[in-house]
Amino acid sequence: MTVPLLDLHAQYAPLRQSLLDAVTRVCDSQRFIGGPEVEGLESELAAHLGTPHALGMSSGTDALVAALMALNIGPGDEVITPTYSFFATAGSVVRVGATPVLVDVDADTFNLNPAATIAAITSRTKAIIPVHLFGQAAELAPIVAAAAAKKIAVIEDAAQAIGCQYQGQPVGSWGDVGCFSFFPSKNLGGFGDGGLVTTTNAVLAHRLKLIRNHGMEPKYYHHLVGANFRIDALQAAVLRVKLPYLAAWSAGRRANANRYRAMFAAAGLSQVTLPVEAPDRTHIYNQFVIGVPNRDGLRAHLDASGIGTEVYYPVPFHLQECFASLGYKPGAFPVAEAAALSSLAIPIYPELTEAHQAAVVDAIRTFYRG
Ligand SMILES: *Cc1c(COP(=O)(O)O)cnc(C)c1O
Questions:
Q1: Of 62, 107, 105, whose CA–CA distance to 80 is shortest?
Q2: Does 81 contact ligand 1 (Cβ within 6 A)?
Q3: Helix-, strand-, coil-residue percentages of the chain, each rounded to 5
Q4: Ligand 1 atom nearest to 64, measured from its CA
Q5: pLDDT tens-digit profile of 156-196?
Q6: Is the CB of 111 under 6 A from ligand 1?
Q7: C-alpha distances in angstroms, 70 versus 34, 73, 74?
Q8: pLDDT tens digits, one per residue of 92-115
Q9: I need a surface site. Which of 43, 60, 192, 318 has the fewest CB within 10 A?
Q10: How close is the Cα of 194 to the center of ligand 1, in Å?
């Protein structure tokens, strides 16, 4: 039995006609930039995420860049990010000319360590970017409190965590700006690139709106230098079809996570470290990442058995070639470095069946037990 890491066909098949109808609606309107699909998506997402302002963006990466620009962050400023995340988290900081200050993650959740974050604050710190990695909220309370006390902004990188909650409140509404991605592999994925920013601050919302469209208001009058960070009407129309299913899909991922837990327990595989769910937050399992010895050997064995996996992430930021000038050395962040060697994402998508999951667990058992 082959089990891909993600099967987008399984999600597409039952929605095919509605999705094609939505795409046709946009084509028939010939309205591709802005317009009712984008506005509709934005108001539906604002309601879904419990935030007054939600603005569609061209990608999750551009959402982060726009958030940093809206907060006037640039050369000479420091922005604290975890060293272990998707590249865009720190890449966006460098793109606005600021300096990423990297911090290690917690060993159980792979999220920003609050004590290390607070210790990294200097007089130049302008923002902190907690990442809700793999779909589980970072420990926001101490970070948001420390940032508020020092007048430092918080930009949540919620690209992997749409619909996830922390202390009963959706992520993306804790910080000054929340950034989301509609990359096809995220829990809410478009037919290409797309993203979103959320904020509860009306002034920031207006700045973000300007920045996303060349600082222009009205047409051809430019208040600031922004960029083209707009979402396409075609993407918005597709996402509007999918949004009503998002909660059920994330519940499906959670149910699959629970089934894996039962299966791994029954298999008695002590070699495998399962994802830890920290208290006070929900995990929407954009990824189900296990920790294993001889990870690359297991990965090759699973590949040969027809089971898709991925390594999130093989190289922490502080060891990336393009960040060499930041001056970090190997050993600087031992938790992230250990995670980079041992973590392996296994299939968790909502349509996964019990038989698929049994095949995954069985193949892992065969590798360790023969
Ligand atoms: C996917 C992702 C992004 C970037 O989103 P894109 O839409 O691909 O640009 C940023 N941060 C994290 C943590 C991500 O997983």
A1: 105
A2: no
A3: 45, 15, 40
A4: 10
A5: 999 999 999 999 999 999 999 999 999 999 999 999 999 99
A6: no
A7: 20, 8, 10
A8: 999 999 999 999 999 999 999 999
A9: 43
A10: 10
